[in-house]
Amino acid sequence: MIDIEVKLPEKTYHIHLAKGLRAQLGTSISRVWHPRQIALISDDHVAPLYMAELHAQLLAAGFTVLDIVVPAGETSKSLTTLEQIITRLAAAGMTRQDGVIALGGGVVGDLAGLVASLYMRGIALIQIPTSLTAQVDASVGGKTAVNLQTVKNIIGTFKQPDLVLIDPDFLTTLSQRDLVEGYAEVIKTSILADTTFFALTGKITSPADILGHAEELIERSIRYKATVVMQDEHEGGLRKVLNFGHTIGHAVELEAHGALRHGEAVAIGMVTISRVFVRHQQMPVALFEALLKRIEQIGLPTSTDLVAAPDFMAHLQNDKKNQQGTLNLIGVAAVGQPFIYPVPFVKLTDFLGDI
Ligand SMILES: NC(=O)c1ccc[n+]([C@@H]2O[C@H](COP(=O)([O-])OP(=O)(O)OC[C@H]3O[C@@H](n4cnc5c(N)ncnc54)[C@H](O)[C@@H]3O)[C@@H](O)[C@H]2O)c1
Ligand SMILES: O=C(O)C(=O)C[C@@H](O)[C@H](O)[C@H](O)COP(=O)(O)O
Ligand SMILES: [Zn+2]
């Protein structure tokens, strides 16, 4: 088993990564939590596959379990769903000594994380990510969120889990589209991280390759993310680089109204902003081409007409990296060398040029 420690000023937690870990989730959880009531939150794609098994393991380990299932998909990251879940926790008499487990993709992780950070001003949380996006990114680092219809992730907290349990075997039931969209965050992390990781993503050309290298891709992604989060938990500076591709990506994701997955939008965002930085001589053409190759060879989208949507520029102004009239764009000068590039709103249209 791979054990990665995330050491933060206020708490330290572990990420366990191993194929087959699924069979021992109850035991792993009972090592960090004493017996308590657990709200086990999942979605209606993941629950029929994995919830009963985990529920039984938790009962066997001495826990009481309240199953909560939300509709699969981004629309569950809403204040309405948040309120429905919190109402269930209150009705079940859950207390500050109880806990929340997120069993699912990034949607469930972000939503259940927010529930855990708000209920009674905060109760314990464990993340069990089942999608690639969640295993390589969302389950680590503590960002939680729900959306407004017009703004992505605008209501959220930083809520670090007590434990993250990752079993790559969960990925075998993921649809090909969801596997590939999650891989966009892997490409993102590989260009931010180092040349060894970036060379590895250069060799991945099919969903079968992703599954074949899942453990290494997950380990490299979360080791890099944990290193960044340990230096800047609350995104005062360095952590902003994890948002590479997301300023444009989130705007495109919103404009697509569910037609694009998060990772697909991030892929478009990475290509679009990189093209801008090439034009401004902040990114070498060869690096841009290497990034584009990785995105194209796995079948992720690279462009969309949605950047011309009427509200596109307005979405950019809601980006959480913005400071006093300035947008902070993320670029990459060389593999392992991301940068933060401030652009005043008033100069943004000129700076972006023809995207
Ligand atoms: N907090 C963070 O740091 C962070 C990082 C990256 C993404 N995110 C957020 O995560 C969300 C995207 O996450 P996602 O791509 O996992 O989307 P998702 O949670 O909607 O999962 C994608 C689909 O896969 C299904 N699924 C998940 N695991 C499965 C499995 N093992 N077998 C079969 N089906 C399975 C889900 O039911 C869903 O239909 C976005 O809202 C994004 O903003 C957050
Ligand atoms: O953990 C981070 O920090 C990230 O930026 C990871 C992103 O992949 C993720 O999509 C995150 O939810 C984006 O956060 P946001 O604050 O830009 O909405
Ligand atoms: Zn993301």
TrEMBL record:
<dbReference type="GO" id="GO:0003856">
    <property type="term" value="F:3-dehydroquinate synthase activity"/>
</dbReference>
<comment type="function">
    <text>Catalyzes the conversion of 3-deoxy-D-arabino-heptulosonate 7-phosphate (DAHP) to dehydroquinate (DHQ).</text>
</comment>
<keyword id="KW-0479">Metal-binding</keyword>
<comment type="similarity">
    <text>Belongs to the sugar phosphate cyclases superfamily. Dehydroquinate synthase family.</text>
</comment>
<keyword id="KW-0170">Cobalt</keyword>
<dbReference type="Pfam" id="PF24621">
    <property type="entry name" value="DHQS_C"/>
</dbReference>
<keyword id="KW-0963">Cytoplasm</keyword>
<protein>
    <recommendedName>
        <fullName>3-dehydroquinate synthase</fullName>
        <ecNumber>4.2.3.4</ecNumber>
    </recommendedName>
</protein>
<keyword id="KW-0057">Aromatic amino acid biosynthesis</keyword>
<dbReference type="GO" id="GO:0046872">
    <property type="term" value="F:metal ion binding"/>
</dbReference>
<keyword id="KW-0547">Nucleotide-binding</keyword>
<feature type="binding site">
    <location>
        <begin position="130"/>
        <end position="131"/>
    </location>
    <ligand>
        <name>NAD(+)</name>
    </ligand>
</feature>
<keyword id="KW-0028">Amino-acid biosynthesis</keyword>
<feature type="domain" description="3-dehydroquinate synthase C-terminal">
    <location>
        <begin position="182"/>
        <end position="322"/>
    </location>
</feature>
<dbReference type="GO" id="GO:0009073">
    <property type="term" value="P:aromatic amino acid family biosynthetic process"/>
</dbReference>
<feature type="domain" description="3-dehydroquinate synthase N-terminal">
    <location>
        <begin position="68"/>
        <end position="179"/>
    </location>
</feature>
<keyword id="KW-0520">NAD</keyword>
<dbReference type="Pfam" id="PF01761">
    <property type="entry name" value="DHQ_synthase"/>
</dbReference>
<dbReference type="InterPro" id="IPR056179">
    <property type="entry name" value="DHQS_C"/>
</dbReference>
<dbReference type="GO" id="GO:0000166">
    <property type="term" value="F:nucleotide binding"/>
</dbReference>
<keyword id="KW-0456">Lyase</keyword>
<keyword id="KW-0862">Zinc</keyword>
<feature type="binding site">
    <location>
        <position position="152"/>
    </location>
    <ligand>
        <name>NAD(+)</name>
    </ligand>
</feature>
<dbReference type="GO" id="GO:0009423">
    <property type="term" value="P:chorismate biosynthetic process"/>
</dbReference>
<feature type="binding site">
    <location>
        <position position="143"/>
    </location>
    <ligand>
        <name>NAD(+)</name>
    </ligand>
</feature>
<feature type="binding site">
    <location>
        <begin position="170"/>
        <end position="173"/>
    </location>
    <ligand>
        <name>NAD(+)</name>
    </ligand>
</feature>
<dbReference type="InterPro" id="IPR030960">
    <property type="entry name" value="DHQS/DOIS_N"/>
</dbReference>
<dbReference type="InterPro" id="IPR016037">
    <property type="entry name" value="DHQ_synth_AroB"/>
</dbReference>
<dbReference type="GO" id="GO:0005737">
    <property type="term" value="C:cytoplasm"/>
</dbReference>
<feature type="binding site">
    <location>
        <begin position="106"/>
        <end position="110"/>
    </location>
    <ligand>
        <name>NAD(+)</name>
    </ligand>
</feature>
<dbReference type="GO" id="GO:0008652">
    <property type="term" value="P:amino acid biosynthetic process"/>
</dbReference>
<feature type="binding site">
    <location>
        <position position="262"/>
    </location>
    <ligand>
        <name>Zn(2+)</name>
    </ligand>
</feature>
<feature type="binding site">
    <location>
        <position position="185"/>
    </location>
    <ligand>
        <name>Zn(2+)</name>
    </ligand>
</feature>
<dbReference type="InterPro" id="IPR030963">
    <property type="entry name" value="DHQ_synth_fam"/>
</dbReference>
<dbReference type="InterPro" id="IPR050071">
    <property type="entry name" value="Dehydroquinate_synthase"/>
</dbReference>
<feature type="binding site">
    <location>
        <position position="246"/>
    </location>
    <ligand>
        <name>Zn(2+)</name>
    </ligand>
</feature>
<comment type="pathway">
    <text>Metabolic intermediate biosynthesis; chorismate biosynthesis; chorismate from D-erythrose 4-phosphate and phosphoenolpyruvate: step 2/7.</text>
</comment>
